[in-house]
Amino acid sequence: WAAGEGDARTVGQLLADQVEFADVIVLNKTDLMEEGDERRVRAVLRRCNPKAEIVASVHGRVDPAAVLHTCLFDPAKAAAHPDWLKEPREHGRAPETEEYGISSLTFRSRRPFHPGRFEELGRVLERRGAAAPEETEGLLPSIHRDAARGVLRAKGLVWLATQQSHWQTGAASLAGRKFAVTYGPAWDAALAQPSPPSEEKKGEERQPSWGEEPWGDRRTELVVIGQHLSRPAMTAALEACLVTEEEMEAYATAFRDAASADVLRHLAGIAGEDLAERIR
C-alpha cells in the first residue's frame, strides 16, 4: 500500500504523524534559535502531543538515558489510537520512504571538490528549490542545480581543493536552510608522512588508515537525503563539483610534497585575519 496519484500529502504531514505518535521528541539545534523561538516550538509540540517528553540538544548531543529504555511506550495506549495498525490491517504498510518519495544516496570520492562549484551547490541546497531571481548560469550548469533542489538533508566527510581542507577533515551539513562546512581534526595522512616499508614488509597490504596513495585518507563520504530525488542526477551534480584532471594536477603540484611542519613554519607570526585568508 502506498500513496496514490491523487494523494497530495507532504513531508510536513509525515513529520506531524511522527510527532503525534512519539514518546520522546529531541529538539535539536536549539543554539541556532532566536529568542522565544524555542518556547514557540515547544508550545506547538505540546499541542500536537501533550504526553511526549521533549529533550533539547545542541549538535545532537543527548543523554542516552533520555531516549533509550525509557519505558514510555504503552502498547495498550497505542492500540487505542484510531490509526494504530489501521494501514497494515487494511492495506499492508509501506514505509514512509515510499509513501512520501524519500530516498538517499552515499557519494564517495577520492578526488577533492572544487571550492567554487561546491559552494555554489551549497547555495542551491540552502534555497531548497527556490531559484534566486537574479540566478544565471554559474559554475554549475542548470541541470545540476535542478538535481540538487529536492535535497532535504546532507551530512558527511568532505575534501575540498583548498589549503585548509588539505590538512583538516571537513564536515559538511545541510539542516533546514543552513549549509555549512566546518573543519576538525587533521587527516591521518597530514600528521606525518608514512615511512617506506622495510624489505621484510614490502608487498604487505598498506595500513587502511592511509587510504590510497598519494593522498592517504583524504576523501569525501557524503550522505544525501531527498524527496523524489533522482540518484543518477544528484550523483552527476556532485561529480560535476569535483576537480577536473587539469585542476587535480595543479592541486598535486601545490601539495604533493608539502609537509605539515612546512605549513606551520610558513604561517608562523601571521595575524589572525591574514591567516584566515591564506588558509582558504
Walk me through what this model shows:
This is CobW C-terminal domain-containing protein. This protein is of the alpha+beta class. The protein folds into two domains: 11-98, no CATH class; 102-190 and 210-279, 2-Layer Sandwich (Hypothetical Protein Yjia, Chain: A,domain 2). The chain has 14 helices and seven strands. Residues 194-198, 205-209 and 261-280 have low confidence and may be disordered.
Topology, please?
Elements: H1 11-21, E1 24-27, H2 37-48, E2 53-56, H3 64-67, H4 75-80, H5 86-90, H6 96-99, E3 102-109, H7 115-127, H8 142-147, E4 151-158, H9 163-167, E5 168-175, E6 178-186, H10 188-191, E7 220-227, H11 231-240, H12 245-255, H13 260-267, H14 272-279
Parallel strand pairs: 1-2
Antiparallel strand pairs: 3-7, 4-5, 4-7, 5-6
How would you summarize this macromolecular structure in one to three sentences?
This protein has 280 residues and is α+β, with helices and mostly antiparallel strands.
List unreliable stretches of 5+ residues. 194-198, 205-209, 261-280
Helix content: 25-40%
Count of the separate structural domains: 2
**Proper CATH architecture of the largest domain:** 2-Layer Sandwich
Termini separation: 51 Å
CATH top-level class of the largest domain: Alpha Beta
Overall structural class, as computed from helix and strand content, comes to alpha+beta
At the fourth level of CATH, the homologous superfamily of the largest domain is CobW-like, C-terminal domain
Count of strand segments: 7
Organism: Corethron hystrix
Domain CobW C-terminal: 102-242
Pfam family, one: CobW_C
GO molecular function, one term: nucleotide binding
